[in-house]
Every structure is written in C-alpha cells, then in structure tokens.
Design goal:
- There is one protein chain.
- By secondary structure, the chain is mainly β.
- Helix content is about 5%, strand content about 55%.
- It has one helix at about 5-10, and strands at about 15-20, 25-30, 35, 45, 50-55, 60-65, 70, 75-90, 95-105, 110, 115, 120, 125-130, 130-135, 135-140, 145-155, 165-170.
- It has a six-stranded parallel beta barrel with strand order 9-10-13-16-14-11. It has a four-stranded antiparallel sheet with strand order 3-2-1-4.
Length: about 180
C-alpha cells in the first residue's frame, strides 16, 4: 500500500468544508481514488481544524466558555465566550447569544451581539439580527444583516502609538 493511499484512507470520513455545498461534510474516496465530498462528489473542499461541535440535536442555554474552535449546528442561547478561538454557526445552527470570539463565520442564524477581534463573515445562507463589532467583515451577496456595525480599524495605535480609529455604520431598514 502506497503512502498516498494510506493518507487518503486516513482522511476518509473526516469532516471538511465542501466549498460547493457550502457546508460541513465527510470525505469519501472516489472510484478514481481522489478524496471527494460524500454528498456532491466535489473535490473542492478544505480541511477544517475544528475540535468541538454542537450537533443539530443539541440545545444549550446559559453561559458557554470554550477554549478551542467550535462549530454550532444546534441551538445556543446565552453568552458564548471564546476570545482567542473561532466560532462557526453552521447552516442549521442558531444562536440567540452575545458572542465573543476571534473569528465568527455565520451560515445559520444569529440574534444578538457579536464581538470579534478579527473577522465576521456572513455566508449567503446566513442571517444576523443584532450588533457587530469587529476589525474586518465579509457579507456575501444574499446574506441578511439587520443591526449596527462597528468596524474598528487598527492603526499604529495598536502598537501603542495612539488609539484605534472607530467607524460606525448602520445597515438595514429597521428602527435604531
């Protein structure tokens, strides 16, 4: 058995992000021996180094403190604290929460405030109703966002030479 075949077999059944499905999927080996998405057969995927997962059937209410990256496919209500880690709200995931994370990727639904030290990304299937404070944001065409957006651009101030510049933007037609 070659080393490439061994690597393929060790990656089989691993959870990855299928770019074509835009969802977490498992890998399978195609007839030609390539690793592909088990649902659509695409070879356009990327490895997700996720270590914690709240599945569809799980509902959590209360304060959640996480010391690793997290994917939510279930339901979370309360406060989510994971300041130095990444949070992904999957397509079937729902969060009614105050979220503190390094990066937040939303393909599901979030109601509440999001505080990200780096990036907030709202995918096409995602929706956010609430306030967002982050350094960078990506809102894909078709995504839904209602609330206030505060983008804090770090300048030389981040190095201790002043203070960060803040820019507030209101997006959405709802009352403020």
């Amino acid at each position: 058995m070659s080393s490439h075949s061994t690597i393929r077999r060790s990656m089989e059944d691993r959870i990855v992000l299928c770019v074509d499905c835009d969802d977490s999927r498992t890998l399978s080996v195609s007839a030609s021996g390539n690793l592909v998405c088990s649902i659509c057969g695409s070879d356009n995927w990327m490895h997700l180094p996720m270590t914690a997962n709240i599945k569809e059937t799980i509902f959590i209410k209360g304060d959640l403190v996480v010391q690793e990256d997290l994917t939510v496919e279930g339901c979370v209500e309360g406060k989510v604290e994971m300041n130095h880690h990444n949070l992904c709200i999957g397509v079937r995931g729902k969060a009614q929460a105050e979220i503190h994370a390094k990066n937040v990727i939303i393909a599901g639904h979030v109601t509440g405030s999001i505080f990200a030290s780096e990036l907030v990304e709202i995918k096409q299937s995602g929706s956010v109703q609430g306030n967002i404070q982050c350094s960078r944001i990506s809102i894909v065409d078709g995504a839904k966002f209602t609330g206030r957006l505060n983008i804090e651009k770090m300048t030389d101030a981040a190095l201790g030479l002043g203070s960060p510049k803040t820019q507030a933007v209101k997006i959405g037609g709802g009352p403020s």
